[in-house]
């Protein structure tokens, strides 16, 4: 395992870390014992950073992380997020009393005294423009409740706005072969300011595994079913904002990336890790096999300049204009 510094903080995190949305819920059926085995396997392989949120399974993911990392709090770092268990458009949700309550609840579920990275969970842009929530986070940081803070964003515009606040130390963004826009301006700006980049949804909700066909179906409780058209939250969180059938068809044009790299999953993760402005990628998982497959990306060859150019051309010519929603 290789480690990268999170911006200009003192945190050094595994370049492949893991997100825990899938083991909390909204990705179909999940088994807690399999989730715990997956977490243990990841840590055995050197993973030292996990991303979660209070809404993942209504605290389920945070509780699983507490169980898995008990006694390892000094070397296993946890990032969690807040605000989406309430009305994200209500300014009161970002008040000091409210944010403190969110923070204390997460600390209790995580069974920790401090959160390593506390993130606002995809707030509306008017909340970011107001900026008063960052003053609250500054207080929590000064008190030792949180080590650093950042923002999970939906759009490049939101990310650039966050960079105007000096104590934002990390941005969590959607970035993958189907969503290349952030690499153009946001990533270089963040790197120059010492702000870390966490990449979520690196496999475009599974499209970039190459395993789906137009006939693939998903459990009604899986966001790939109920949020396919952005009915519950930002459409970009599901299949990178692409219509499912379109995404499947486009994925077939990418099967060549697996050549010499084992499979499309590992290749898609390697493509992200090849970007020097990235701190880490946080794929999801539901079992040990998925953890091991994702970690396999560490051993596969990087992309050549010619290959990267080929993928950038595909994005510009056939993908960019088909993505729905602001990004």
Characterization of this structure:
- With 327 residues, this protein is α/β, with parallel strands linked by helices.
- It has a single domain (3-322), classed as TIM Barrel.
- Helices cover 36% and strands 14% of the residues.
- It has 13 helices and ten strands.
- The chain has helices at 21-24, 32-44, 60-68, 96-110, 125-130, 132-142, 156-162, 186-192, 223-226, 244-252, 264-273, 288-295, 305-319; strands spanning 3-5, 12-14, 18-19, 49-51, 77-82, 115-121, 146-152, 168-174, 196-200, 280-281.
- The chain has an eight-stranded parallel sheet with strand order 3-4-5-6-7-8-9-10, covered by helices on one side.
- Strand 7 (146-152), helix 7 (156-162) and strand 8 (168-174) form a beta-alpha-beta unit.
- Helix 2 (32-44) packs across helix 3 (60-68) and helix 2 (32-44) runs parallel beside helix 12.
- The two termini are 31 Å apart.
- It holds the Pfam family Aldo_ket_red.
- InterPro entries: AKR_Detox_Biosynth (IPR050523), NADP_OxRdtase_dom (IPR023210).
- It comes from Paenibacillus solanacearum.
């Amino acid at each position: 395992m290789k480690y990268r510094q999170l911006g200009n903080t003192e945190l050094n995190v595994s370049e492949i870390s893991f997100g825990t949305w899938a083991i909390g819920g909204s990705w179909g059926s999940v088994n807690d014992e399999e989730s715990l085995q997956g977490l243990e396997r990841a840590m055995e392989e050197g993973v030292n950073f996990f991303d979660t949120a209070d809404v993942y399974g209504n605290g389920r993911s945070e509780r699983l992380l507490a169980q898995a990392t008990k006694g390892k709090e000094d070397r296993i770092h946890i990032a969690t997020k807040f605000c989406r268990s309430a009305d994200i458009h209500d300014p009161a949700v970002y008040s000091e009393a409210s944010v403190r309550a969110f923070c204390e609840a997460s600390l209790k579920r995580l069974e920790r005294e401090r959160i390593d990275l506390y993130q606002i969970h995809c707030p509306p842009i008017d909340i970011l423009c107001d900026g008063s929530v960052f003053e609250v986070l500054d207080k929590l940081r000064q008190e030792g409740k949180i080590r650093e803070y950042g923002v999970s964003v939906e759009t490049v515009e939101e990310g650039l706005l966050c960079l105007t606040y000096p104590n934002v130390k990390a941005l969590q963004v959607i970035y993958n072969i189907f969503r290349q826009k952030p690499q153009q301006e946001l990533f270089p700006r963040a790197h120059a300011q010492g702000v870390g980049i966490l990449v979520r949804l690196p496999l475009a909700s599974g499209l970039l595994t190459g395993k789906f066909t137009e006939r693939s179906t998903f459990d009604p409780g899986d966001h790939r079913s109920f949020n396919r058209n952005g009915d519950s939250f930002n459409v970009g969180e599901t299949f990178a904002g692409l219509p499912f059938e379109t995404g499947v068809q486009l994925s077939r044009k990418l099967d060549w990336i697996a050549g010499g790299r084992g499979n499309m999953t590992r290749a898609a993760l390697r493509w992200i890790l090849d970007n020097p402005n990235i701190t880490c990628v946080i794929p999801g998982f539901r079992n040990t096999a998925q953890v091991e497959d994702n970690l396999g990306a560490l051993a596969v060859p990087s992309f050549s300049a010619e290959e990267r150019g080929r993928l950038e051309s595909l994005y510009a010519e056939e993908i960019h204009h088909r993505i729905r929603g602001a990004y």
